[in-house]
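does this look right to u?? adenosine-5'-triphosphate version
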Amino acid sequence: MLSVNGLDVYHGYVHALKNVSLNVRQGELLAVLGANGAGKSTLLGTLAGLYKPAAGEIIFQNKKIAGQSPEKIVRAGIALIPEKREIFSGLSVMDNLMMGAFHRYRQDKADIPNDVEEVLELFPLLQGREKDLAGSLSGGLQQMLAIGRALMARPSLLLLDEPSIGLAPLVVREIMAILVGMKESGVTVVLVEQNTKAALRVADSVLVMERGKIVHHGSSKEAISDSLLQEAYLGRT
Ligand code: ATP
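got this back:
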């Protein structure tokens, strides 16, 4: 469903992605691992239309999307949950969810209340908190709200940038279980993580980046049993 070929991205003089190519199947959960500065966030940002590639192609559901605006890419079915979560902390939980459906207002407005119900079923801990300010929620609930808001756009591809950052292990497990549930319902997931252990537990496949390049791409099973790979790039898990 997603095919990236020969992607080159620069931030000024920094060559952040170097000839990056990858394929993701429908319903796959791909973990993107690697040290700080490896280019993981740049990869997600480029898929979401935040950075324009200098070269290369991104084909999503048979359409070329490289260089398109973020709005167009959201409409095509790709949603990004950035590292800083970027929920609207001064708005209520409900208003945050509604903001996620903003671009749908003119198309399928009638389905929106139903989708809110579905998101709240997926995140029972948000139930009863609909009127609370998003900024008053715990870190874990804010991350759930950020995912819920992204789901309101009805994406077929969800991009997550370090959803586990700053969260307690139990909450990380909950978030990962939700990602597995989404994958099982047919949503394709690309998960950037520093928490290698948590990511390998749920991923189907793994991509390791180093200094803008992909240095490994394989199954997560293989990565878990590959001690050399773990030693070289991932730290022991
Ligand atoms: P982290 O886990 O620290 O976010 P990362 O693997 O996601 O790391 P990127 O954030 O994609 O890596 O950064 C890749 C390279 O591009 C780094 O050298 C970084 O300093 C640089 N970079 C990223 N964003 C910008 C920017 N907006 N302007 C200039 N350089 C940038």
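The chain has a mean pLDDT of 91. idk if thats expected tbh
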